[in-house]
Amino acid sequence: MAVSDATDGAAAKLGGSGRGSTLLRILGSIGRILLTLALTFLGLTAITFVIGRVMPVDPVLAIVGDRAPAHVYEEVYLQLGLDKPIIVQYFNYLGEILSGDLGDSITTSRPVMEDLLRFFPATLELATLATLLGTLFGIPMGVLAAVYQGRMIDHVVRVVGLIGYSVPVFWLGMVGLLVFYAKLQWLPGPGRLEFYYDGLVPTVTGLLLVDAAIADNWTVFWNAASHLVLPVSILGAYALAYIARMTRSFMLDQLRQEYVLTARVKGLSERTVIWRHAFGNVLVQLITIIGLTYASLLEGSVLTETVFAWPGIGQYITNSLFNSDMNAVIGGTIVVGTCFVGINMLSDALYRLVDPRAR
Amino acid sequence: MAFTWKQATRALFAGTILSAPVVLPAMAETPADTLIMAMRMDDIITMDPAEAFELTTGEINANVYDRIMMYEPEDLTTLTGGVAESWEISDDGKIITFTIREGLTFHSGNPVRAEDVAWSLQRVLQLDKTPAFIITQFGWSADNADEVIQLTDDGRVQVTVVEDFSPGLVLNALSAGIGSVVDRELVLEHEVDGDLGYEWLATNSAGSGAFSLTQWNANESVIMEANPDYRHGAPAIDRVIIRHVPEPAAQRLLLEQGDIDIARTLTSDQIAGLEGTEGIVIDDHPKATLYYLAANANHEALGNPLVWEALRYLVDYDGMADTFLRGQFTVHQTFWPTGLWGSIDDEPVYQMDLERAQELLAEAGYPDGFSMTIDSLNTSPYLEIAQSVQQTLGQAGIEAEIIPQDGSALWPKYRARRHELILARWSPDYVDPHSNADSFAHNPDNSEEAQLTGVLAWRNAWANDEINALAVAARNEIDLGVRADLYADLQRMHRDDSPFIVMFQQNEQIARQENVEGFVSGPLFDLVFYRNVTK
Fold first, then answer.
1. DSSP three-state, residue B497
2. pTM for this structure?
3. Among B residues 48-67, those touching chain A with beta carbons less than 8 Å apart
4. pLDDT tens-digit map of A226-253
5. Are strands B280-295 and B157-160 parallel, antiparallel or unpaired?
6. Residue A8 has what pLDDT?
7. DSSP string, A83-145
8. Are residues B41 and B189 in the same domain?
9. What pLDDT, on the 0 to 100 scale, is given for residue A358?
10. For B254, which of A189, A222, A271 is closest by C-beta distance?
11. What is the CATH number of domain A112-358?
């Protein structure tokens, strides 16, 4: 955020030179985006790289195993360039990234880029649907709780929020599986797809729902959809709890404002007062909240992915971290960082759309 | 008021209906021609048999590749020819000549020839990855690969053992993963810049085993198809699917719902919960994995043999085996596990004996104990074992601080001799007592400069001339009877006079559907076979 704010300022100066040229404004926007991206990537790679190197884990042993003789260890140590100063290692790595090569993963023996294209869509599918679910339910619940403050619905929303926020996701996942998969048999078990549908639809986007729709294979589509229900509901419950709580709080602030009283005195309908006036004023804050929620879900929820055997980016990065697979960790971090930057930019654009003052 | 409670609830209800779960029934059973297993398999790094050394890849390659020598699932105690039909050993035990079976084919359809056998071994030496030490100890290297492994004029494969080694040991070593025979022609088709197909074989297979690897999605699944032309006949099942399910509780649910045939990595709690469940059977598979404590002899107190002996009396072996390790471990106190050639069936000699331990500590000059650390992995059952040991050591005044950590932090520390007392595990690389003796007992150079980091005795800064000599004599002995006696002596001597306190031997418990028969999980990680499985 700090980077984004700083570049916002820089861009404001650039764009605010008063010349009013559209071309200049567009160039300024592009420059701002590029600068934000460059600074973010530089910061992300530098911090992740340094953390990876100072951690008391040995990337060489992750490759050769703990039984490796000294000469095998030494050979891989030199291959990885670990004999060079850390700053040289970093710039060598940066050079490779800039040439489009994220390197190979130790833990999968495949190019990191290939892994990311496989693991990230699994998380993207999960996070997008969970955010949609959380938003669709969280906002009305938050608004209702604020409008009916202190009444039954408010208590219900607060309790739901509290439960959603405080129950461990791991436990909730296991209980969900136990009830809906094992006992009621309404939903399928862990995994993205039943194994016999594996490979039936060609990978285009990596998003199973989309790929199955493109392939016009609705059997696979519904199977993938049924596998999404439980993990999406559980992640969605967390998103919902947060969004509902924040919506309630923002709305309460607005409903106390004098302009709401004025609107009511003027005889506007309650619907107009709440949704057009009060809710319209919390939209900017809500966009931030939803953006942050989405971004944090895109990082991958390791516990949810573990319980549901979901091959997502959270599990990939965590497993890589434990195996000192720094190419994979940095590759994953870049993807997550890009998501944050992208979502920030999208939020910025939406601010301008919903708030005339930001235009 | 226009915005009513009724409207609100209606809106919420409509939302619920719109996003209602897609209710589909769970599968009741798995297909009859497919074996489906769930296990944790995020340890896979490469599928190349010249480099693969992890538990999961050892198992997969045992089914994908035939080896020169093998322990077959029908009899896991008898070494037999795999790709080799027969072998001759020269009188001095230095030259072994293998005759290769005729009519074998790789999954590609290429014939299995003596050239493939020789090239596979030479490839292991030329790539020189970690498991290569299993054969480089014979004096083989990338430099002399062409001389020590040759084709004879009559189309056989001749290997020459350079160092003094029992030929029985060499044959055993060739039954390890590095003895896998790879399809030379196919692999060389995928060679890049003279890498001997290293990059390609990391994610593909080129074997002649009972199954071919058709798909490996890291952290997701492995799929194998049956080889109809396998030398023992086509496997009873057409396909094996291994699903990566890291959470044991999820594995249990999948098994109970009939969505998998075998759950492989269950905790003792899960196993206990499944006992008595209709249609599910729990199997015990004794493994050769040992759990042990080791004292760094560079530590002032821990370098004292009297302290080692005291520590042996300060472990509650039975208490642990009967409680939180129940069913999954048995008490075992020598460096070679039971159930294999060369093992001894002695009853456990050491038991928890506080009084005896206190006497020994007093004799060693530590009547009030001392302080030290215990390095341990941060997972179960290591932490529970470490806590039990911490508690029993405390009874004798030894103040032990447990340092739980991940393997990626623990192993570098161990290899650098920076631990004090460590709790670790070890499993043999091949079925010969030398595999463990060479690490637990034999340390030819204890100096810091030697950097024998793969040797457990060196990691613990310990060497004993008498034990070293016995380990070498047992290694070199040609007569099998004499050799077995030498290893029996070595195990007892090592048990009583070394900084190692071997405590437990692992027992793998798996849960399967009762209609699934014929799954064989041998004592070593790469002796797991699917080809006799029926449903």
1. coil
2. 0.83
3. 53-54
4. 999 999 999 999 899 999 999 999 999 9
5. unpaired
6. 45
7. TS-HHHHHHHHHHHHHTT---B-TTTSSBHHHHHHHHHHHHHHHHHHHHHHHHHHHHHHHHHH
8. yes
9. 64
10. A189
11. 1.10.3720.10
Q: How many CB pairs under 8 A join A and B?
A: 180
Q: What digits encode the pLDDT tens for the residues A117-169?
A: 999 999 999 999 999 999 999 999 999 999 999 999 999 998 988 888 788 88
> If you measure CA to CA, which chain A residue comes closest to B455?
A67
* Residues 198-217 in B contacting A (C-alpha not used; CB under 8 Å): 202-203, 215, 217
Does the beta-carbon distance from A178 to B253 stay under 8 Å?
yes
Surface of A (5-34) touching B: CB under 8 A: none
Give the integer Cα–Cα distance in Å for A300 and A123.
6
| Burial classification of residue B526, based on how many CB atoms lie within 10 Å of its CB (0-12 exposed, 13-18 middle, 19 or more buried) | buried
b/e per residue A280-293 (b: at least 16 CB within 10 A): ebbbbebbbbbbbb
Q: In chain A, positions 177-236, which contact chain B (CB-CB < 8 Å)?
A: 177-178, 180-182, 185-191, 194-196, 198-199, 222-223, 225-226, 229-230, 233
Distance of CA B49 to the CA centre of its chain: 14
Q: Do A306 and B21 make contact, defined as CB atoms within 8 angstroms?
A: no
Higher-pLDDT residue of B323 and A7 is B323
Strands B399-405 and B371-377: parallel
Cβ A306–B247 below 8 Å, yes or no? yes
Q: Are residues B97 and B157 in the same domain?
A: yes
Q: Quick one: B318 and B254 in the same domain?
A: no
- Domain membership of residue B494 (yes or no) is yes
| Per-residue pLDDT at A11 exceeds 50 | no
Whether the link from the prior residue into B131 is cis, omega within 30° of 0, is no
| pLDDT at B473 exceeding the cut of 90 | yes
Say whether residue B453 is in contact with chain A using an 8 A CB cutoff.
yes
Segments in B5-93 forming alpha helices (H): 5-18, 55-64
Mean pLDDT over all residues of chain A? 86
Range of the domain at B489: 287-507
pLDDT at site B437: 97
Same-domain status, B487 and B381? yes
- Let me know: does A155 contact A285? Beta carbons within 8 Å: no
If you average pLDDT over residues B414-424, what whole number do you get? 96
